[in-house]
């Protein structure tokens, strides 16, 4: 094999990297408005250079092709709306810039590198030039907007800005008033603001950066409304595409931001198509295009760069070494070694993969932009040191990261989100002349010293353990470190020797179960391990319970019950009660916990619980972490209590204090993280679980506030209800609904939202009465007293009682409007008679509310026979059908009479007879549900006034599928509310 060349003699970094002047991170951040305005970095401004440095990933080709289909007027297999859903720093704006260059270049874009593959992906042959509108949330002020002082019209809203860009003043005129008032346009207005002379592409970036400050204005939520209305409208338009990128960094979001983000994302995903722009295996190609200069003629079928022969030889050398040592390196790597080295050259595969394997879950890590920034600094330093130091490195390895360079360390700590690691790096790895790894290399024998094995091994541990990041910390295994540091020029045994020396010397390096990681603290592991083993389990349990009570000390106005063992320990009251489950029982470790909680929710001692919906349980998902952290704290407290008898230096004393502080914090955080499951009754009457996710003390002021906030977002808890809600959910069997029953229903029925305060019920009643939607009444000796309807009612004057009621506006009107005759009922309604016989008819008046109305001056008539003034009809000799008519006060009633010599055929109504007077009347029969109210009005109401009425009801219900437990419980509660026995079989 020919002599292998070091990487820096095979490929050239970009000019600025070769000259040691890598630009800052902003150089890797695309700004759409800068491109539009012509002042972006040349790599982004010039479309030719842009496409040369852009690797067209599979997803990028797909979405770009779909956009072109839509702009060509082809609506099949193409959406009108796309939502970029990649991670922060994951290439969203870069993708938008690519679409911008395609749409503004038109047919000229066919000559750009890789564009033919986009045309193939979209199955189109043309790139239509389009009107392009750009909105960037980071660059648009909520109050002042854009323009006005540069010779252009001032645009105060996103829709005004987009209309201006798409069609100038003519388009802006369409939304001028909407822009002035800050109200999102809709429907035809949106159609008219988008010119139809050619295709239109709307690129909307960094929406959250606009929505967050917008929330503080009187037009909060209008951006959401605009995007929703825009998505609805363009779905029916030809040659119009909108591409939206929502997020700012999740770390920069508050609770309100996260709620808006979720709301926006759900809407955009529902209305359009979510797009993930790059896959993990495409990251290395993106990096190579951006950091090195290549022969752009050497590109494979999929757009990937083809390596020079010297590069392939170096990759083959490393792949052969892997095969020779396959049992000592990670088995996930060995089967595809040659391909892995070629895919990442000139980087060692572990350099690229460590970010995907170990760093990507860090909150501040930026998947594309952050990695590019780090690697740009890395390449620049490696190129300079390679030539100056005459190093023969075939690849840029993980151990070569220049942690001794302050600029590089700063970039690393930005991605880690943890600057306190500065001390650990400088002390143990690099950054000072006394760094332990540097000193160990100087003291080592020549082979190790020349290869800087100690520094490379320590650096590899740092990256493989992602800087020792708290709960996100990863560990570097020995096989991973062998693969990252050893190779054709460094023996595996030398790596393990270096690791042993580092473990003995370093202050912050920790060895745990054959894995390594760096910590921010020096170590007292030996004393700690001894004390930890002696901690008693009962002390651990006691400390955990104490900490849970501290964490949930702030009740935020809720009732609290800690660690109940029986249902009787939980009060049965109409008030939201937070029930904190015992830490010894977690969902993960106690399978029967859900059944126990269900039983205690539905039972109250020996009886059934009325206010089941009032209980909100919070239980741990996993208790192990709390016990472990409590045991850790007890161990450090034991060491602290004995420190006077220990031979500790000042550094160790400081370290002990830090351990104690962190252990207390960890225990508190573990309670926050563990108690992340909220359980309550769902609308189906079954227990449902709400997962709070990864919870920390920074998530809210208290867990109770976080729980309340989450449940409010899910509409499980509300601060207020509307009068309309009460009317919509009015029990049909209650013409008068007591205020106490109204309140109790919100805490008894899971169909109703839970109320934070009974004042919400009072407020709803007060508003409903004041607005005339209901009346507030109480029974007096002569009717309702008080009777408040369509009058101002203060919520503080609303009494919650069994003796105070609300009635509907319809019933209230009956008490204030004078009765008017609206109907006359004639009895009998039908009579069958023989010629010459007589039949007496009676008339009864009803008012507009169906109540009896005294009729006077009745005027009787008939269409045949003889009708006297008393309502007596005498049939004549003629046979046939006749009408009996009665009139009073302009209202008419009728009855039908059939006169025949022979009885009527079967099926006709029989002639009514007048029954003899009886002392007692009894009736039984089955009444269809739709006639219940009529039965009460037409039958029972007549008997109520006569007195002596007794009603016995038998109810039997056999619905298909049976009645659920929740339905049965609701019926029992309703019966109790009516003062009836709740014995339901």
From TrEMBL:
<dbReference type="Pfam" id="PF04465">
    <property type="entry name" value="DUF499"/>
</dbReference>
<feature type="region of interest" description="Disordered">
    <location>
        <begin position="896"/>
        <end position="923"/>
    </location>
</feature>
<protein>
    <recommendedName>
        <fullName>ATPase AAA</fullName>
    </recommendedName>
</protein>
<dbReference type="InterPro" id="IPR007555">
    <property type="entry name" value="DUF499"/>
</dbReference>
């Amino acid at each position: 094999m020919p002599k292998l060349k070091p990487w820096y003699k095979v490929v050239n970094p970009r000019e600025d990297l070769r000259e040691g002047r890598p630009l800052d991170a902003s150089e890797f951040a695309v700004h759409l408005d800068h491109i539009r305005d012509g002042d972006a970095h040349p790599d982004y401004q010039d479309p030719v250079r842009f496409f040369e440095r852009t690797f067209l990933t599979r997803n990028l080709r797909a979405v770009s092709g779909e956009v072109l289909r839509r702009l060509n007027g082809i609506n099949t297999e193409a959406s009108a709306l796309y939502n970029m859903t990649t991670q922060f720093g994951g290439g969203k704006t870069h993708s938008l810039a690519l679409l911008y260059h395609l749409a503004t270049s038109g047919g000229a874009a066919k000559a750009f590198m890789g564009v033919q593959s986009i045309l193939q992906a979209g199955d189109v042959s043309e790139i239509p030039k389009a009107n392009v509108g750009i909105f960037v949330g980071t660059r648009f002020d909520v109050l002042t907007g854009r323009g006005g002082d540069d010779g252009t019209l001032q645009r105060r809203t996103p829709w005004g800005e987009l209309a201006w860009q798409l069609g100038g003043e003519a388009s802006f005129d369409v939304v001028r008033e909407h822009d002035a008032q800050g109200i999102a346009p809709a429907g035809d207005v949106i159609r008219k603001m988008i010119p139809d002379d050619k295709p239109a592409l709307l690129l909307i970036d960094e929406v959250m950066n606009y929505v967050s400050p917008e929330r503080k204005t009187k037009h909060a939520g209008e951006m959401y409304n605009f995007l929703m209305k825009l998505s609805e409208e363009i779905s029916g338009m030809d040659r119009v595409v909108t591409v939206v990128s929502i997020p700012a960094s999740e770390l920069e979001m508050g609770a309100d931001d996260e709620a808006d983000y979720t709301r926006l994302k759900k809407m955009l995903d529902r209305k359009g198509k979510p797009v993930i722009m790059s896959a993990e295996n495409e990251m290395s190609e993106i990096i190579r295009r951006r950091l090195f200069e290549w022969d752009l003629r050497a590109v494979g079928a999929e757009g990937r760069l083809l390596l020079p022969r010297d590069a392939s030889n170096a990759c083959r050398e490393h792949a052969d070494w892997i095969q020779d040592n396959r049992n000592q390196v990670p088995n996930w790597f060995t089967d595809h070694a040659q391909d892995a080295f070629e895919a990442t050259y000139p980087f060692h595969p572990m350099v690229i993969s460590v970010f995907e394997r170990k760093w990507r879950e860090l909150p501040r890590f930026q998947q594309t932009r952050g990695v590019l920034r780090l690697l740009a600094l890395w390449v620049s330093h490696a190129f300079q040191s390679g030539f100056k130091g005459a190093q023969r490195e075939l690849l840029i390895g993980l151990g070569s990261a220049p942690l001794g360079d302050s600029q590089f360390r700063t970039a690393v700590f930005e991605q880690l989100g943890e600057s306190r690691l500065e001390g650990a790096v400088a002390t143990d790895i690099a950054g000072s002349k006394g760094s332990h790894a540097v000193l160990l290399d100087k003291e080592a024998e020549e082979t190790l010293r020349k290869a800087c094995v100690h520094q490379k091994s320590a650096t590899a541990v740092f990256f493989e353990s992602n800087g020792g990041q708290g709960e996100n910390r990863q560990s570097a295994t020995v096989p991973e470190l062998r693969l990252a540091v050893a190779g054709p020029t460094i023996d595996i045994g030398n790596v393990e020797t270096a690791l042993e020396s580092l473990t003995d010397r370093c202050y912050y390096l920790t060895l745990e179960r054959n894995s390594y990681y760096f910590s921010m603290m020096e170590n007292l592991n030996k004393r700690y391990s001894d004390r930890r083993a002696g901690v008693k389990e009962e002390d651990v349990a006691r400390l955990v319970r104490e900490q849970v009570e501290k964490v949930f000390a702030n009740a935020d106005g809720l009732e609290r019950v800690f660690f109940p063992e029986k249902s009787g320990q939980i009060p049965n009251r109409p008030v939201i009660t937070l029930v904190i489950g015992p830490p010894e029982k977690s969902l993960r470790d106690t399978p029967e916990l859900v059944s126990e909680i269900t039983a205690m929710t539905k039972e109250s001692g020996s009886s059934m619980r009325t206010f089941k919906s009032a209980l909100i349980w919070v239980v741990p998902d996993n208790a192990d972490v709390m016990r472990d952290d409590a045991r850790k704290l007890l161990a450090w407290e034991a060491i602290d209590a004995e420190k006077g008898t220990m031979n500790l230096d000042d550094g160790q004393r400081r370290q002990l204090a830090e351990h104690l502080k962190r252990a207390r914090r960890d225990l508190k955080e573990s309670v926050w993280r563990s108690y992340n499951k909220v359980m309550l009754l769902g609308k189906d009457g079954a227990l449902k679980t709400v997962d709070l996710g990864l919870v920390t003390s920074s998530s809210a002021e208290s867990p109770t506030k976080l729980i309340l906030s989450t449940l409010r977002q899910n509409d499980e808890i509300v601060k207020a209800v509307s009068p309309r809600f009460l009317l919509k959910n009015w029990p049909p069997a209650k013409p008068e609904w007591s205020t106490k029953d109204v309140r109790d229903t919100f805490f008894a029925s899971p169909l109703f939202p839970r109320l934070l305060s009974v004042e919400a019920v009072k407020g709803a009643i007060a508003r409903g009465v004041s607005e005339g939607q209901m009346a507030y009444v109480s029974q007096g000796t002569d009717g309702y007293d008080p009777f408040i309807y369509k009058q101002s009612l203060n919520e503080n004057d609303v009494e919650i009682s069994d003796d105070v009621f609300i009635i509907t506006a319809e019933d209230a009107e009956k008490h204030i409007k004078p009765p008017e005759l609206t109907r006359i009922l004639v009895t009998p309604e039908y009579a069958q008679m023989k010629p010459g016989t007589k039949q007496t008819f009676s008339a009864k008046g009803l008012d507009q509310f169906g109540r009896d109305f005294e009729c006077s001056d009745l005027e009787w008539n008939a269409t045949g026979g003889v009708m006297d003034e008393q309502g007596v009809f005498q049939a004549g000799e003629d046979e046939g059908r006749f009408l009996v008519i009665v009139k009073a006060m302009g209202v008419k009633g009728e009855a039908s009479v059939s006169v025949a010599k022979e009885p009527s055929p079967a099926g006709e109504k029989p002639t009514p007879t007048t029954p003899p007077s009886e002392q007692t009347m009894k009736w039984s029969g089955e009444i269809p549900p739709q006639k219940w109210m009529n039965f009460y009005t037409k039958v029972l109401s007549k008997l109520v006034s006569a007195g002596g009425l007794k009603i016995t009801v038998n109810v039997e219900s056999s619905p298909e599928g049976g009645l659920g437990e929740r339905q049965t419980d609701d019926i029992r509660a309703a019966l109790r509310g009516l003062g009836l026995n709740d014995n339901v079989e």
